[in-house]
């Protein structure tokens, strides 16, 4: 048995994520004595930043955990008394 650690940076996986909030990892190997192939898949959900909301006026606070600026992001507010989502470009 052997443990191998591999670090994947945001810059490496970001082009492949798209609109998904998860990564699918696949590990494969072969048994030397028999040639049998062994594979395992793991789905890892990415963490989103926590939001802090306060009332009157509403203030939304979050911190981008990524080393890259957000572009084209939109915040949509929904709730009681709001007849349709109100988009706000960030």
UniProtKB/TrEMBL annotation:
SUPFAM superfamilies: Transglutaminase, two C-terminal domains. GO terms for molecular function: protein-glutamine gamma-glutamyltransferase activity. It comes from the Eukaryota. The keyword Transcription regulation does not apply. The lineage of its organism: Eukaryota, Metazoa, Chordata, Craniata, Vertebrata. The keyword Transferase applies. This is TGM1 glutamyltransferase. It comes from Campylorhamphus procurvoides. Keywords: Transferase. Signal peptide: none annotated. Gene3D superfamilies: Immunoglobulins.
């Amino acid at each position: 048995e052997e443990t191998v650690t591999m670090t994947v940076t945001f810059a490496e996986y970001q082009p492949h994520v798209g609109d998904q909030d998860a990564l699918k990892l696949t590990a494969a190997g072969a048994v030397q004595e028999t040639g049998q192939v062994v594979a395992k898949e793991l789905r890892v959900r990415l963490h989103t930043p926590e939001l802090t909301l306060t009332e009157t006026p509403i203030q939304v606070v979050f911190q981008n955990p990524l080393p890259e600026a957000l572009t084209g992001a939109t915040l949509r507010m929904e709730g009681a008394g709001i007849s349709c989502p109100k988009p706000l470009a960030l």
